[in-house]
């Protein structure tokens, strides 16, 4: 299973990030490639507890849905997932600025997330609830993969 905890998987994600262009066409959804880069940055900020995000969870999401999303070998479907308003670039998410600077910020955030020490207190995920470091790093890979596939990266 791919995860940002694996150096090869992390390198793959960073390589794919560098292939994204502002004009990359989306295959589904409504955000632009530049908005997607900012969305991923906001998501990693959320994962480190630097960006508060409202919760939309229940017992089913914290148990069965979480396990299916993180550990079944299925790709996340395109265009069916609704994001929280705080990480939606058309609502309260970080607005795109300079594309190259925003890509560099996302790359730095991937580095920060993967450098967390074993005692780091990961915040609850807004949908999946409490997650271990392994869960967060698996989620980080799957979430970036989902959006990179959205733009053919």
Short description:
It is built from five helices and no strands.
Write the layout of secondary structure elements.
Blueprint: H1 7-19, H2 33-47, H3 59-71, H4 99-114, H5 133-150
Helix pairs in contact: 1-4, 1-5, 2-4, 2-5
Q: What percent of residues are in strands? A: under 5%
How far the N terminus sits from the C terminus, by CA atoms, comes to 19 Å
Number of helices: 5
Could you tell me the number of beta strands?
Answer: 0
Stretches with pLDDT under 50, minimum 5 residues:
none
Relative helix content: 40-55%
Which H/E pattern describes the elements? Answer: HHHHH
Envelope shape? globular
Main sheet record: none
Mean pLDDT: 93
What class would the helix/strand composition place it in?
Answer: mainly alpha
Radius of gyration: 14 Å
Structure, described:
The protein has helices at 7-19, 33-47, 59-71, 99-114, 133-150. The model has no long low-confidence stretch (mean pLDDT 93). By secondary structure, the chain is mostly helical. The chain is globular and about 40 Å long. Helix 2 (33-47) packs parallel to helix 4.
Descriptive keywords:
49% helix, 0% strand, 153 residues, 5 helices, mainly alpha
């Amino acid at each position: 299973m791919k995860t940002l905890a694996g150096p090869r998987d992390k390198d793959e994600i960073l390589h794919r990030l560098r292939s994204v262009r502002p004009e990359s066409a989306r295959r589904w959804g409504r955000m632009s490639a530049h908005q997607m880069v900012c969305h991923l940055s906001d998501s990693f900020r959320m994962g480190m507890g630097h960006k508060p995000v409202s919760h939309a969870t229940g017992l089913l999401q914290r148990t069965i849905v979480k396990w299916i999303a993180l550990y079944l070998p299925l790709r996340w479907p395109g265009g069916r997932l609704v994001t929280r308003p705080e990480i939606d670039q058309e609502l309260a998410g970080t607005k795109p600025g300079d594309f190259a600077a925003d890509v560099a910020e996302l790359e730095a955030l991937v580095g920060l997330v993967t450098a967390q020490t074993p005692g780091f207190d990961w915040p609850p995920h807004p949908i999946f609830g409490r997650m271990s470091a392994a869960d967060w790093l698996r989620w980080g890979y799957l979430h970036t993969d989902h959006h990179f596939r959205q733009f053919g990266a």
